[in-house]
Design goal:
By secondary structure, the protein is of the alpha/beta class. It has ten helices and eight strands. An eight-stranded parallel barrel has the order 1-2-3-4-5-6-7-8, surrounded by seven helices. α2 runs parallel beside α3. The protein is globular.
């Protein structure tokens, strides 16, 4: 199943002045970004500082974003965890909160990828599951050769590796979404399904143009891409605060 095509946003989790999750403001940001061309919204992903969120905060965020964007685009929830039981529980809770699909990274060093993603898929109750290749978080990640044997609809690849991207689009029949804003002008033209990006929180239009093959837009994204690559979610929030007067606080700063 192809969940969406084009560019989606890996949504930040906005906080209030006391570092409490501000679900309404986060949902308002999601709605604005959908209006600016985003084809999906990923909630509680790594850009959303998922590791710092309590279970009830995750549910509130997913529900608020779901209500804000309606049925216009799919809401994807991050549910990766270092233990299969935890990932399955997060997945079930996300589905109950209104997620349309889930994105899960496997346990570091996982030797049973099929078993892990089978448990996540069972908890998802038939909704699409995306495998998340993010080797610095869950080394060694998911080999391209293993993807076809997993019970997933596709994958997000945040490695930023152009060689892996070419391998994916040439040899993996499922959906491939990239997570690096450095590769947009390559990924779209060579046949990637889409992208799910932290940089799209602040430059959604440029991300869309670059994915469509606009090399000038890709170059124009350079400073934002490098800032996000170096600074992570706190950097995204600082840019947002400068442009939209949102709270720049982060739990991972």
């Amino acid at each position: 199943m192809e969940l969406f095509t084009g560019v989606g946003v890996a949504l930040v989790t906005l906080l209030d002045a006391d570092r409490r999750v501000d679900a309404p403001s986060t949902a308002d940001l999601a709605s604005e970004l959908v209006g600016r061309g985003m084809r999906s919204v990923l909630v509680c992903g790594t850009t959303g500082e998922a590791a710092t969120l309590a279970d009830e905060e995750r549910v509130a965020l997913i529900g608020s974003v779901r209500a804000a964007v309606g049925g216009s685009v799919p809401v994807i929830a991050g549910t990766g965890a270092a233990a299969v039981d935890r990932a399955a529980a997060l997945t079930a809770a996300a589905v109950g909160a209104g997620a349309d699909a889930v994105l899960a990274w496997p346990p570091p060093g996982s030797e049973d990828l099929a078993g892990y993603f089978g448990a996540v898929a069972a908890a998802a109750g038939g909704l699409p599951v995306l495998a998340y290749h993010i080797p610095w978080l869950s080394a060694p990640g998911i080999p391209v050769s293993a993807l076809g044997g997993l019970p997933v609809a596709g994958q997000k690849d945040s490695s930023g590796d152009p060689n892996r991207l070419l391998d994916e689009v040439a040899h993996y029949p499922g959906a491939t979404y990239i997570g690096s804003s450095a590769l947009l002008a390559l990924a779209g033209p060579v046949g990637a399904t889409g992208a799910i990006l932290a940089a799209a929180n602040v430059e959604p239009e440029l991300c869309c143009r670059a994915f469509a093959g606009d090399a000038a837009a890709q170059r124009e994204l350079t400073d934002t891409h490098l800032a996000v690559l170096d600074g992570g979610p706190p950097a995204v929030k600082r840019i947002l605060a400068q442009r939209h007067n949102t709270v720049a606080l982060s739990r991972t700063a």
